[in-house]
Design a protein that fits this description.
globular; single chain; about 0% strand
Length: about 450
């Protein structure tokens, strides 16, 4: 009896399928499609990293919403299907995707399991189920996949460049919208795709997307051993991101930017008095240049604690009340907005977003969820900081130095901006976690090889 390998079995199935389709539809184009299909599948598997990173870029930077003319192509859907396909192939057939574990994965999985178990106990089960199946479960899956797939130095370098280019695209469109008065909120705050219901239709969420590649732009520009072209591209991208961020008039975004900039300065300025004093001055200048005082909400026309600030305080109070009432599971993922009326002590006729990652996680996953989430962030930052401080950067290539320098700065930007922006269950922090875990694995493996 002849035994077949799994690969030979799939080849036989493919030949039989091709013959069957040709018998039903005897047309040359069918033969051409089936003839090219193996080549296309080979390309998808061979360049699987680019397929996955492409899905991440479209999902996070919302490229199909930034450029709505490509929306009919359904590129995110195709990249999602291709990503799942290559994961299956590399795990089962080629077996060249080696899973591994880390401390961050433990906290991530515990947090994810808590969110999952809490769904039946959510205040609105339908909303929680949709958020879990539609977005959050995919983010968690891709966090593992990205960390496992990023094994080579070229993966980190190419990712940095892709994030820069994608961020520049978003920033350019934001500036064009600002110049033409398209989709402005409160008459002054820029957005993208607000008319089509894009995630970037909220200026705070847009600020978050613009903030993420900022660390890579700064790290690339400061790396003197890179080519003049790359440094010029980084400087240009930084300016685009900076002015687009100012146009959002997001206080959380500006504070996050200052935190990113501050971490780079912390590693380069010896006088900490000068560092913090200069940071305060820069913050005042940023708020003035951004035109925060001209905002309809949170502007200079409002006396005392402005309306925007009070709105956040009321929302945080509601989040605290939700956690007290549901200490174990919270009200459920994506349920804060729909439960605001029941837990707010100040009802103005409208439900509001929580405008805080920490209070959002507290409200929607309870005290245990907040503990796990904070532990995940802390351990990730510690890992990134250890890599930065323990690695002999002079022995690394310039591209890898960019990735190592940008990693902790990006997390600090998230921690600070997260105080005022809702980003506990969306892409940015999970993408950063995946990159740090991959960096940690890369350097641990490298040390093992050098030692042996």
């Amino acid at each position: 009896m002849v035994s077949l390998t799994l690969k030979e079995f799939f080849i036989m199935i493919y030949i039989a399928l091709t013959a069957g389709v040709m018998a039903l539809f005897p047309h040359p184009i069918v033969l051409a499609v089936f003839g090219l299909l193996p080549l296309a599948l080979w390309g998808v598997v061979h360049y699987s990293f680019y397929v996955v990173i492409g899905f991440v870029v479209f999902s996070f930077f919302r490229i199909h919403e930034v450029f709505p003319m490509i929306e009919p192509l359904k590129i995110p859907l195709m990249l999602a299907l291709a990503s799942l396909f290559v994961i299956f192939i590399r795990l089962t057939i080629t077996k060249n995707l080696t899973p591994y574990w880390s401390k961050q994965f433990t906290y991530l999985m515990l947090f994810f399991l808590l969110i999952t178990i809490a769904i039946p106990f959510s205040a609105n089960v339908g909303v929680a189920s949709t958020a879990w199946s539609g977005v959050y479960s995919k983010i968690i899956l891709m966090t593992f996949v990205i960390a496992w797939m990023m094994r080579k130095e070229s993966h980190f370098i190419i990712s940095c460049r892709i994030f820069l280019i994608a961020g520049a695209c978003v920033g350019i469109v934001a500036l064009i919208n600002k110049a033409n008065g398209i989709g402005l909120v409160e008459g002054t705050r820029v957005t993208i795709g607000r008319d089509i219901g894009s995630l970037l239709g909220d200026p705070n969420d847009l600020a978050l997307v613009l903030l993420y590649p900022m660390a890579y732009a700064i790290a690339t520009f400061l790396e003197k051993q890179l080519s003049s072209f790359e440094r010029l591209l980084a400087l240009t991208t930084f300016l685009i991101l900076f002015f687009a961020l100012l146009a959002t008039q997001s206080r959380g975004g500006l504070l996050g930017f200052l935190a990113v900039l501050g971490l780079f300065a912390y590693n380069r300025i010896r006088s900490k008095i000068l560092l913090f004093g200069g940071g305060g001055v820069i913050l005042l200048i940023l708020f003035t240049v951004a035109g925060i005082n001209d905002r309809s909400s949170g502007g200079a026309a409002e006396e005392g604690i402005d309306e925007s600030a009070m709105g956040r305080i009321y929302a945080w109070e509601a989040a605290w009340n939700m956690a007290l009432d549901n200490p174990i599971f919270g009200v459920g993922i994506n349920n804060f907005y729909y439960n605001y009326f029941y837990y707010s002590t100040h009802w103005d006729g409208l439900n509001h977003a929580v405008h805080s990652t920490w209070f959002g996680v507290l409200a929607e996953s309870g005290f245990l969820g907040l503990f796990l989430f904070v532990s995940l962030i802390v351990t990730t930052f510690i890992a990134a900081w250890k890599i930065l401080k323990n690695t002999n950067l002079t022995k690394l290539s310039p591209g890898m130095r960019v990735a190592v320098n940008a990693a902790p700065a990006g997390i600090v930007g998230f921690v600070v901006s997260g105080t005022f922006l809702t980003q506990g269950f969306i892409w940015p922090i999970y993408l950063q976690i995946a990159l740090v875990i991959a960096l940690q694995r890369y350097f641990n493996t490298k040390k093992t090889i050098e030692t042996s």
